[in-house]
Amino acid sequence: MGEVSFETSAYAKIILHAAKYPHCAVNGVLLADGTKVRDSAKTQDLDIVDTVPLFHHSHYLSPMAEVALTQIDTVAQADNRVIAGYYAACENFRDNTVEKCPGQKIAEKIVENFPSAVFIVVDNKKVMQHLETPAIKIHKYCDGKWKLIDTNKLLFQTPYVLETVSHLLQSGVQRDLVDFDNYLDDLSQDWTNLGIEKVVASINASNTVDCKEKDY
Asked: Which residues form the MPN domain (predicted)?
């Protein structure tokens, strides 16, 4: 299993989705940089550059999932990205295993098309205590099962990721996150969440300036 690295906004959207609906199970897909992956490879590094929140109440409606995945795949290909994984948070606060997660068939479908796909499980207990450790667990499909991999395989492409996500949560940015359930209720809403990406980019730029001023 290769390393899995996350852009700040990609990781942030996962946590914001879980935080927006703490009373619900949520799920979504991971998009990787298509220039750095090999579709048939089972073991490779993945650069997760974006995530797309899917559902908080339509997990088991396959037509909804098919519509969402088709639309996401079309947009992803235009940006030279590939659907490279799946994430989910369980409804029960104490559950943080693949077996308890919703929409596992979506994850299995993704790994059929992309053998090195990963399954991210949100650790609900850590979502609101974000300055210590990442609130996700990474799984790889092996021998017909999703198996937990070492935490040292998780990397972040920019510094201050946990601090940035903590700031977003404290500022209530999760209220602005749009998943496909929201989009299907109101087609004017932006399921790509470009607004959140802009906020994250602004914070990253501010952190970079601070570091230069402090001569880190």
From this structure: 4-145
